[in-house]
Amino acid sequence: MSRDTLTALVRTIPDFPKPGIQFRDITTLLADGEGLRELVERLVAIARPLDADLIVGIEARGFILGAALATALGKGFVPVRKAGKLPGPTVGIDYVLEYGTDRLELHEGQAPVGSRVILIDDLIATGGTAIAAAQLLQEQGASVLMALFAIDLPDLGGMAALKAQGIPAEAILTFEGH
């Protein structure tokens, strides 16, 4: 399956969640069996040579891609969630959004000191959430080998921001605009 065919499986919803935004909805790609298989195979091809210990997925669609990637690689999966969603002891990081702050958490000890991880999410826009997740992992002593995404919105600068933080990053698909 070509990159153009994969791209065509992503639905664009204009003016969501606010006017002027072109929301890139990956759920249509996820619902297509061939498309999902191809996306996961492309993620695996990038991730396999890194030989990570763990795959870490960012809530929520990063859970879907992360679990598929972890299964294909025979690695464990660790979720990074919004505050208050995980039972038991957690560690977290607060980060700034365009209009306020948010918090990400993971279970204490699930990214052990010295672990080598790949961070994954469905889409990177400004990079704020991905950078916060990477910082949280690094604060726990994990090494973030790479951040992987199904979709990059390069006009919003997230991929460049991750790379400026010293975190290699790649995406399978690219959409211009917001």
TrEMBL record:
First-tier enzyme category under EC: transferase
Which UniProt keywords are given for this protein, alphabetically ordered?
Answer: Cytoplasm, Glycosyltransferase, Purine salvage, Transferase
Reply yes or no: does the keyword Cytoplasm apply: yes
**Which residue stretches, if any, does this entry annotate as coiled coil?**
none
- Answer whether the UniProt record assigns the keyword rRNA-binding to this protein: no
Query: Boundaries of each Phosphoribosyltransferase domain copy?
Result: 52-144
Where is it located? Cytoplasm
Q: Which reaction does it catalyse?
A: AMP + diphosphate = 5-phospho-alpha-D-ribose 1-diphosphate + adenine
Q: Matching Pfam families, A to Z?
A: Pribosyltran
GO CC terms, sorted: cytoplasm
Swiss-Prot/TrEMBL GO biological process terms:
adenine salvage; AMP salvage; purine ribonucleoside salvage
GO molecular function terms listed in the Swiss-Prot or TrEMBL record: adenine binding; adenine phosphoribosyltransferase activity; AMP binding
Superkingdom of the source species: Bacteria
Catalytic activity, EC: 2.4.2.7
- Chief location bin: cytoplasm
Q: Which family does it belong to?
A: Belongs to the purine/pyrimidine phosphoribosyltransferase family.
**Cited function:** Catalyzes a salvage reaction resulting in the formation of AMP, that is energically less costly than de novo synthesis.
PANTHER family per the UniProt record, alphabetical: ADENINE PHOSPHORIBOSYLTRANSFERASE
* Stated name of the protein: Adenine phosphoribosyltransferase
Q: Which species?
A: Sphingobium amiense
Which gene name belongs to this protein?
Answer: apt
